[in-house]
Prior knowledge:
- It is a single chain.
- By secondary structure, the protein is of the alpha+beta class.
- The chain has a single domain (42-248), classed as L,D-transpeptidase catalytic domain-like (Beta Barrel), CATH 2.40.440.
- It has helices at residues 2-22, 27-37, 41-54, 216-223, 245-248, and strands at 59-60, 77-78, 85-90, 100-104, 110-113, 154-164, 167-174, 189-192, 210-211, 226-228, 233-235, 239-243.
- The strands form three sheets. The protein has an eight-stranded mixed β-sheet with strand order 5-4-3-12-6-7-8-9, sandwiched between helices. Strands 1-2 form a two-stranded antiparallel sheet. It has a two-stranded antiparallel sheet with strand order 10-11.
- InterPro entries: YkuD_2.
Amino acid sequence: MKLMTKTFLALALVSTALSARADYLSWKEIEKRFKAEGLNTKALGHVQCFFEKHENTVFKRKMSFNEADNRCGQDSQITLDKKRVFALIDYTAPSDQRRMFLVDRLTGGISMMAVAHGRYKAHMLNTRLSENKNSIKHARYFSNELGSNAPSSGFYVSGVEYEGKFGRSMVLHGLEDGINDNACERAVVVHKHLMVTRGSAHALSSGCPMISRDYIDHVINLLEGNYDPATNEVTNGSVVFIYGPRESKWAASTCEGNFNL
């Protein structure tokens, strides 16, 4: 009887997992909701491509030069462990718009919020877009270099949360060689800032996607990975896709990232 009970429970768990996956809305339905909100459906198409091609891909993680930096982890591999919710940041839109979106593939819910981008060689309150200087409103310059203070676009998987300079923060693991794979080493993370409101960013960051204090718990709770100190086991989180000038040149419905495989 115990064996039968265990078998039934195992089958029930498998059935539940499969049904949850089957219950995800179609990409056409999610696209319909994007259109209704006036959001970037081309950027969404790249996310769809990523899920269809790389949902179960094992990516290589660029090892941190600082082995004591536990924030970045020591596992040589990155997997996508949370698939229900993803984040899309549209850096081709100005920062006075809600250009970060958390999308629930099960319910179709979309959380929209403002997000700041990296300054590159500008100061954090720069309002004029010029050579090598991003403005508060517009992101033109991107970099993967250490110390650049620039945003990095492309595909990421969210990591664990930690307590940083700005309080509760969330690691980002860049998946693309030479594009964003220095993100964790650069301390490019999701964090809050008082100069970002729900609907607009009023300052530049040092490379991080910087959001309102009102949303930080919501974002991290939905996207974060997990660290179990008892077993020293780390699971990764969700897809985070930052859409910038490079990605705007991709053909529709493609995901041409320079992935570390």
